[in-house]
Design goal:
- The complex is a heterodimer of chains A (211) and B (153).
- Chain A is mainly β and 211 residues long.
- Chain A has one domain: Porin.
- Chain A is 5% helix and 61% strand.
- Chain A contains one helix and 13 strands; from the N terminus they run αβββββββββββββ.
- Chain A has an eight-stranded antiparallel β-barrel. A three-stranded antiparallel sheet of chain A has the order 8-11-12, with no helix packed on it.
- Chain A is elongated, with a radius of gyration of 22 Å.
- The N terminus of chain A is likely disordered.
- With 153 residues, chain B is mainly β.
- Chain B has no helices and nine strands.
- In chain B, strands 1-2-3-4-5-6-8-9 form an eight-stranded antiparallel beta barrel.
- Classes of the chains: A mainly beta (211), B mainly beta (153).
- The interface between A and B is medium-sized, with 37 and 32 residues.
Chain lengths: 211, 153
Protein backbone atom coordinates (compact mmCIF):
# COMPACT_ATOMS: atom_id res chain seq x y z
CA UNK A 1 0.00 0.00 0.00
CA UNK A 2 2.83 2.39 0.84
CA UNK A 3 4.37 1.76 -2.58
CA UNK A 4 1.00 2.42 -4.24
CA UNK A 5 0.63 5.75 -2.46
CA UNK A 6 4.20 6.65 -3.33
CA UNK A 7 3.67 5.86 -6.99
CA UNK A 8 0.43 7.86 -7.09
CA UNK A 9 2.23 10.76 -5.51
CA UNK A 10 4.88 10.58 -8.21
CA UNK A 11 2.18 10.80 -10.86
CA UNK A 12 0.35 13.60 -9.10
CA UNK A 13 3.32 15.80 -8.50
CA UNK A 14 5.03 15.25 -11.78
CA UNK A 15 8.27 13.65 -10.68
CA UNK A 16 7.99 10.86 -13.19
CA UNK A 17 10.37 12.35 -15.67
CA UNK A 18 12.77 13.55 -12.99
CA UNK A 19 12.87 10.05 -11.57
CA UNK A 20 13.23 8.54 -15.03
CA UNK A 21 10.04 6.55 -14.41
CA UNK A 22 8.85 6.06 -17.94
CA UNK A 23 7.93 3.09 -20.04
CA UNK A 24 10.48 2.31 -22.71
CA UNK A 25 8.26 0.51 -25.19
CA UNK A 26 4.74 1.79 -24.40
CA UNK A 27 3.02 5.16 -24.65
CA UNK A 28 3.17 6.82 -21.28
CA UNK A 29 -0.56 7.48 -20.82
CA UNK A 30 -2.99 4.59 -21.01
CA UNK A 31 -6.78 4.82 -21.23
CA UNK A 32 -9.13 1.81 -21.11
CA UNK A 33 -12.92 1.73 -21.16
CA UNK A 34 -15.40 -1.10 -21.30
CA UNK A 35 -18.33 -3.02 -19.90
CA UNK A 36 -18.62 -5.34 -16.91
CA UNK A 37 -20.81 -8.17 -15.79
CA UNK A 38 -21.04 -8.65 -12.03
CA UNK A 39 -21.78 -11.52 -9.71
CA UNK A 40 -22.88 -10.87 -6.12
CA UNK A 41 -22.73 -13.30 -3.22
CA UNK A 42 -26.52 -13.67 -3.20
CA UNK A 43 -28.35 -16.44 -4.99
CA UNK A 44 -29.54 -15.41 -8.47
CA UNK A 45 -28.25 -11.83 -8.10
CA UNK A 46 -26.06 -10.34 -10.84
CA UNK A 47 -25.34 -7.03 -12.50
CA UNK A 48 -23.99 -5.06 -15.42
CA UNK A 49 -21.89 -1.93 -15.51
CA UNK A 50 -19.18 0.15 -17.09
CA UNK A 51 -15.56 0.79 -16.23
CA UNK A 52 -12.96 3.38 -17.22
CA UNK A 53 -9.29 3.60 -16.27
CA UNK A 54 -6.59 6.20 -16.85
CA UNK A 55 -3.03 5.24 -15.97
CA UNK A 56 0.55 6.32 -16.35
CA UNK A 57 2.97 3.69 -17.67
CA UNK A 58 5.87 4.22 -15.29
CA UNK A 59 7.70 1.15 -16.58
CA UNK A 60 7.17 -1.42 -19.33
CA UNK A 61 5.70 -3.70 -16.67
CA UNK A 62 4.06 -1.24 -14.25
CA UNK A 63 1.15 1.19 -14.61
CA UNK A 64 -0.45 3.36 -11.92
CA UNK A 65 -3.57 5.46 -12.10
CA UNK A 66 -7.27 5.52 -11.40
CA UNK A 67 -10.38 3.43 -12.05
CA UNK A 68 -14.07 4.29 -11.94
CA UNK A 69 -16.66 1.51 -12.07
CA UNK A 70 -20.44 1.78 -11.93
CA UNK A 71 -22.47 -1.41 -11.60
CA UNK A 72 -26.22 -1.96 -11.38
CA UNK A 73 -27.27 -5.11 -9.47
CA UNK A 74 -30.57 -6.89 -9.86
CA UNK A 75 -32.33 -10.13 -8.93
CA UNK A 76 -31.61 -12.46 -6.04
CA UNK A 77 -33.39 -13.63 -2.92
CA UNK A 78 -32.42 -13.58 0.78
CA UNK A 79 -33.58 -14.98 4.08
CA UNK A 80 -35.84 -17.78 5.22
CA UNK A 81 -38.72 -16.36 3.19
CA UNK A 82 -36.56 -15.99 0.06
CA UNK A 83 -37.39 -12.30 -0.15
CA UNK A 84 -36.59 -10.73 -3.51
CA UNK A 85 -33.99 -7.97 -3.59
CA UNK A 86 -34.63 -4.79 -5.53
CA UNK A 87 -32.35 -3.12 -8.07
CA UNK A 88 -29.38 -1.37 -6.52
CA UNK A 89 -26.19 0.30 -7.63
CA UNK A 90 -22.56 0.28 -6.57
CA UNK A 91 -20.09 2.90 -7.77
CA UNK A 92 -16.40 3.12 -7.01
CA UNK A 93 -13.38 5.33 -7.55
CA UNK A 94 -10.03 3.65 -6.95
CA UNK A 95 -6.35 4.26 -7.28
CA UNK A 96 -4.63 1.20 -8.65
CA UNK A 97 -1.35 -0.30 -9.75
CA UNK A 98 -0.91 -2.95 -12.44
CA UNK A 99 1.95 -5.36 -12.98
CA UNK A 100 2.31 -6.85 -16.48
CA UNK A 101 4.10 -9.96 -17.62
CA UNK A 102 5.96 -9.80 -20.91
CA UNK A 103 5.95 -7.20 -23.64
CA UNK A 104 4.20 -9.15 -26.38
CA UNK A 105 0.71 -8.65 -27.71
CA UNK A 106 -0.65 -11.10 -25.11
CA UNK A 107 0.13 -9.70 -21.67
CA UNK A 108 -1.21 -11.23 -18.48
CA UNK A 109 -1.36 -8.87 -15.54
CA UNK A 110 -2.25 -8.61 -11.88
CA UNK A 111 -3.45 -5.42 -10.21
CA UNK A 112 -4.51 -4.02 -6.88
CA UNK A 113 -6.82 -1.07 -6.34
CA UNK A 114 -8.06 0.72 -3.25
CA UNK A 115 -10.49 3.56 -2.74
CA UNK A 116 -14.06 4.67 -2.18
CA UNK A 117 -17.30 2.83 -2.85
CA UNK A 118 -20.89 3.97 -2.55
CA UNK A 119 -23.87 1.63 -2.52
CA UNK A 120 -27.52 2.41 -3.07
CA UNK A 121 -30.21 1.23 -0.68
CA UNK A 122 -32.09 -2.04 -1.13
CA UNK A 123 -35.87 -2.36 -0.99
CA UNK A 124 -36.92 -5.73 0.44
CA UNK A 125 -40.46 -6.89 1.03
CA UNK A 126 -41.28 -8.39 4.43
CA UNK A 127 -42.11 -12.09 4.70
CA UNK A 128 -44.11 -14.01 7.32
CA UNK A 129 -40.94 -15.11 9.14
CA UNK A 130 -38.97 -11.87 8.71
CA UNK A 131 -38.59 -9.87 11.89
CA UNK A 132 -36.33 -7.15 10.57
CA UNK A 133 -34.02 -5.98 7.81
CA UNK A 134 -30.90 -3.89 8.36
CA UNK A 135 -29.34 -2.20 5.37
CA UNK A 136 -26.99 0.68 4.96
CA UNK A 137 -26.04 3.07 2.20
CA UNK A 138 -23.22 5.52 2.04
CA UNK A 139 -19.53 5.66 1.40
CA UNK A 140 -17.15 2.84 2.19
CA UNK A 141 -13.51 1.95 1.74
CA UNK A 142 -12.71 -1.10 -0.32
CA UNK A 143 -9.93 -2.99 -2.05
CA UNK A 144 -10.02 -4.60 -5.46
CA UNK A 145 -7.51 -7.28 -6.51
CA UNK A 146 -7.63 -8.02 -10.22
CA UNK A 147 -6.25 -10.56 -12.69
CA UNK A 148 -6.55 -10.46 -16.43
CA UNK A 149 -4.95 -10.52 -19.80
CA UNK A 150 -4.45 -7.96 -22.55
CA UNK A 151 -5.01 -9.39 -26.02
CA UNK A 152 -3.64 -6.54 -28.08
CA UNK A 153 -5.99 -3.62 -27.39
CA UNK A 154 -8.67 -5.86 -25.83
CA UNK A 155 -8.66 -6.59 -22.12
CA UNK A 156 -10.39 -9.43 -20.30
CA UNK A 157 -10.17 -9.21 -16.52
CA UNK A 158 -11.78 -10.27 -13.28
CA UNK A 159 -11.91 -7.90 -10.29
CA UNK A 160 -13.07 -8.81 -6.81
CA UNK A 161 -14.50 -5.74 -5.09
CA UNK A 162 -14.16 -6.25 -1.34
CA UNK A 163 -16.16 -3.46 0.33
CA UNK A 164 -15.26 -3.08 3.98
CA UNK A 165 -18.04 -2.35 6.44
CA UNK A 166 -20.98 -2.51 4.03
CA UNK A 167 -23.69 -4.82 5.29
CA UNK A 168 -27.21 -6.04 4.74
CA UNK A 169 -28.78 -8.24 7.40
CA UNK A 170 -32.09 -10.08 7.26
CA UNK A 171 -33.46 -11.22 10.64
CA UNK A 172 -35.76 -14.25 10.45
CA UNK A 173 -37.69 -16.17 13.08
CA UNK A 174 -37.33 -19.92 12.55
CA UNK A 175 -39.86 -21.29 15.00
CA UNK A 176 -38.99 -19.25 18.09
CA UNK A 177 -35.30 -19.02 17.23
CA UNK A 178 -33.98 -15.83 15.65
CA UNK A 179 -31.74 -16.36 12.64
CA UNK A 180 -29.74 -13.68 10.85
CA UNK A 181 -28.67 -13.86 7.23
CA UNK A 182 -25.69 -11.66 6.38
CA UNK A 183 -25.69 -10.53 2.78
CA UNK A 184 -22.29 -9.58 1.46
CA UNK A 185 -22.05 -6.44 -0.64
CA UNK A 186 -18.82 -7.67 -2.22
CA UNK A 187 -19.04 -8.46 -5.89
CA UNK A 188 -16.97 -9.96 -8.68
CA UNK A 189 -16.72 -8.03 -11.95
CA UNK A 190 -15.83 -9.64 -15.25
CA UNK A 191 -14.60 -6.96 -17.58
CA UNK A 192 -14.30 -6.65 -21.34
CA UNK A 193 -12.63 -3.39 -22.24
CA UNK A 194 -10.70 -1.68 -25.00
CA UNK A 195 -7.45 0.23 -24.81
CA UNK A 196 -7.88 3.65 -26.43
CA UNK A 197 -4.35 4.85 -25.63
CA UNK A 198 -1.19 3.34 -24.20
CA UNK A 199 -0.14 0.90 -26.89
CA UNK A 200 3.37 0.16 -28.06
CA UNK A 201 5.45 3.08 -29.20
CA UNK A 202 6.27 2.97 -32.92
CA UNK A 203 9.73 1.64 -33.60
CA UNK A 204 12.22 4.35 -34.56
CA UNK A 205 12.96 4.26 -38.26
CA UNK A 206 16.39 2.86 -38.99
CA UNK A 207 18.88 4.74 -41.17
CA UNK A 208 18.56 3.77 -44.80
CA UNK A 209 14.84 3.07 -44.54
CA UNK A 210 12.57 4.49 -47.23
CA UNK A 211 11.54 8.14 -47.51
CA UNK B 1 -5.68 26.89 -33.47
CA UNK B 2 -6.13 23.12 -33.15
CA UNK B 3 -8.54 20.52 -31.85
CA UNK B 4 -8.25 19.31 -28.27
CA UNK B 5 -9.93 16.28 -26.80
CA UNK B 6 -9.77 14.68 -23.39
CA UNK B 7 -11.33 12.38 -20.83
CA UNK B 8 -11.27 12.18 -17.04
CA UNK B 9 -12.39 9.96 -14.23
CA UNK B 10 -13.96 11.84 -11.34
CA UNK B 11 -14.71 11.23 -7.67
CA UNK B 12 -16.98 13.84 -6.17
CA UNK B 13 -19.03 15.05 -3.26
CA UNK B 14 -22.23 17.05 -3.60
CA UNK B 15 -23.99 18.99 -0.90
CA UNK B 16 -26.78 21.47 -0.46
CA UNK B 17 -29.69 22.54 1.66
CA UNK B 18 -33.39 22.53 0.92
CA UNK B 19 -35.56 25.59 1.39
CA UNK B 20 -36.87 23.86 4.54
CA UNK B 21 -33.35 24.00 5.97
CA UNK B 22 -32.53 20.28 5.65
CA UNK B 23 -29.00 19.65 4.50
CA UNK B 24 -28.11 16.73 2.26
CA UNK B 25 -24.98 15.30 0.69
CA UNK B 26 -23.90 12.54 -1.65
CA UNK B 27 -20.94 10.81 -3.22
CA UNK B 28 -20.63 10.40 -6.98
CA UNK B 29 -18.26 8.62 -9.34
CA UNK B 30 -18.18 9.33 -13.03
CA UNK B 31 -16.50 10.38 -16.23
CA UNK B 32 -15.88 13.66 -18.04
CA UNK B 33 -15.37 14.40 -21.73
CA UNK B 34 -13.84 17.58 -23.08
CA UNK B 35 -13.70 18.62 -26.70
CA UNK B 36 -12.86 22.02 -28.09
CA UNK B 37 -10.18 24.28 -29.46
CA UNK B 38 -6.68 25.15 -28.38
CA UNK B 39 -6.50 28.80 -29.40
CA UNK B 40 -2.92 29.43 -28.27
CA UNK B 41 -0.39 27.73 -26.03
CA UNK B 42 -2.11 29.36 -23.04
CA UNK B 43 -5.77 29.67 -24.01
CA UNK B 44 -8.36 27.00 -24.84
CA UNK B 45 -12.13 26.85 -25.11
CA UNK B 46 -13.98 23.56 -24.88
CA UNK B 47 -17.25 21.86 -24.09
CA UNK B 48 -16.96 20.02 -20.80
CA UNK B 49 -19.53 17.30 -20.17
CA UNK B 50 -19.87 15.26 -17.01
CA UNK B 51 -21.81 12.15 -16.04
CA UNK B 52 -21.68 10.57 -12.59
CA UNK B 53 -23.65 8.18 -10.42
CA UNK B 54 -23.75 7.60 -6.68
CA UNK B 55 -25.91 7.97 -3.61
CA UNK B 56 -27.38 10.97 -1.87
CA UNK B 57 -29.27 11.36 1.38
CA UNK B 58 -30.14 13.76 4.18
CA UNK B 59 -27.36 14.52 6.66
CA UNK B 60 -29.74 13.85 9.54
CA UNK B 61 -32.15 10.96 9.72
CA UNK B 62 -32.71 8.15 7.27
CA UNK B 63 -33.62 8.00 3.63
CA UNK B 64 -31.80 8.74 0.42
CA UNK B 65 -30.89 6.58 -2.49
CA UNK B 66 -29.23 6.35 -5.86
CA UNK B 67 -28.68 9.50 -7.87
CA UNK B 68 -27.09 10.60 -11.12
CA UNK B 69 -25.73 13.94 -12.28
CA UNK B 70 -25.29 15.22 -15.81
CA UNK B 71 -23.66 18.50 -16.71
CA UNK B 72 -22.43 20.29 -19.80
CA UNK B 73 -20.66 23.63 -19.84
CA UNK B 74 -18.59 25.78 -22.15
CA UNK B 75 -15.30 26.41 -20.38
CA UNK B 76 -12.48 28.84 -21.07
CA UNK B 77 -9.11 27.64 -19.81
CA UNK B 78 -5.87 29.50 -19.23
CA UNK B 79 -2.61 27.67 -18.70
CA UNK B 80 -0.21 29.36 -16.33
CA UNK B 81 3.51 28.67 -16.12
CA UNK B 82 4.59 25.39 -14.53
CA UNK B 83 1.71 23.57 -16.30
CA UNK B 84 -0.93 24.81 -13.87
CA UNK B 85 -4.28 25.64 -15.46
CA UNK B 86 -7.46 27.43 -14.42
CA UNK B 87 -10.82 27.50 -16.14
CA UNK B 88 -14.36 28.73 -15.72
CA UNK B 89 -17.60 28.48 -17.63
CA UNK B 90 -21.35 28.10 -17.61
CA UNK B 91 -23.84 25.56 -18.85
CA UNK B 92 -26.74 23.38 -17.81
CA UNK B 93 -27.00 20.50 -15.37
CA UNK B 94 -29.35 17.76 -14.25
CA UNK B 95 -29.34 16.50 -10.66
CA UNK B 96 -31.22 13.22 -11.00
CA UNK B 97 -34.47 15.06 -11.73
CA UNK B 98 -34.17 18.75 -10.78
CA UNK B 99 -32.28 20.68 -13.42
CA UNK B 100 -31.11 24.17 -14.16
CA UNK B 101 -28.22 26.37 -15.22
CA UNK B 102 -24.83 25.81 -13.70
CA UNK B 103 -21.55 27.59 -13.16
CA UNK B 104 -18.27 25.72 -13.27
CA UNK B 105 -14.74 26.49 -12.14
CA UNK B 106 -11.73 24.22 -12.42
CA UNK B 107 -8.09 24.29 -11.54
CA UNK B 108 -5.46 21.67 -12.10
CA UNK B 109 -2.10 20.54 -13.21
CA UNK B 110 -0.61 18.79 -16.23
CA UNK B 111 2.11 16.67 -14.59
CA UNK B 112 3.69 15.72 -17.92
CA UNK B 113 3.03 15.26 -21.57
CA UNK B 114 4.11 12.60 -23.99
CA UNK B 115 4.58 13.11 -27.69
CA UNK B 116 4.61 10.50 -30.41
CA UNK B 117 3.81 10.69 -34.12
CA UNK B 118 2.57 14.24 -33.83
CA UNK B 119 0.26 13.45 -30.90
CA UNK B 120 0.77 15.23 -27.58
CA UNK B 121 -1.06 13.72 -24.64
CA UNK B 122 -1.09 15.37 -21.24
CA UNK B 123 -2.03 13.72 -18.00
CA UNK B 124 -4.13 16.06 -15.87
CA UNK B 125 -5.16 16.19 -12.24
CA UNK B 126 -7.91 18.71 -11.53
CA UNK B 127 -10.35 19.99 -8.96
CA UNK B 128 -13.73 20.72 -10.58
CA UNK B 129 -16.45 22.72 -8.84
CA UNK B 130 -19.98 22.95 -10.21
CA UNK B 131 -22.87 24.97 -8.83
CA UNK B 132 -26.25 23.71 -10.05
CA UNK B 133 -28.96 26.34 -9.69
CA UNK B 134 -31.97 24.04 -9.75
CA UNK B 135 -34.38 26.24 -7.81
CA UNK B 136 -36.93 25.20 -5.18
CA UNK B 137 -36.77 23.16 -3.09
CA UNK B 138 -33.05 22.52 -3.49
CA UNK B 139 -31.67 25.97 -4.27
CA UNK B 140 -28.06 25.81 -5.40
CA UNK B 141 -26.32 22.44 -5.08
CA UNK B 142 -22.53 22.33 -5.06
CA UNK B 143 -20.52 19.43 -6.46
CA UNK B 144 -16.77 19.25 -5.87
CA UNK B 145 -14.87 16.58 -7.80
CA UNK B 146 -11.30 15.43 -8.03
CA UNK B 147 -10.52 14.19 -11.51
CA UNK B 148 -7.70 12.28 -13.16
CA UNK B 149 -7.57 12.34 -16.92
CA UNK B 150 -5.70 13.02 -20.09
CA UNK B 151 -5.98 15.60 -22.81
CA UNK B 152 -4.70 15.41 -26.35
CA UNK B 153 -3.77 18.74 -27.87
Amino acid sequence: MRALVLLLGMVTFGHLRAAGAESEHYEQIRFDGGLTGSSVGVRDRSGVGMVAEIKAMVHDHVAVGGRVEIAVMFGGVVGQDELPLDVSMAASGLIKAELYGGTGSIRPFVALGAGGYTIGSHSIQSGPNTSGISTSIGRYFGVAPEVGVDLGPVRIAATYNAILGASLEVHDMVGNAPQTTHVSQNYLSIELSFRFAGGRKPRPRAQGDGP
Amino acid sequence: MSLRNGFSLSVGQEFGETTAGESFSGQLYGVDWRIGLKISDAIAVYAHSHLSFGTVGPDQGSGGGVTGNMAAAVVGEYTLPFRVFMGAGAGYGVLNNPNGPLLEARAGYYPFKTTSEGKARRLNVALDARWYMVGDPYGTVTQISVSLGYDRF
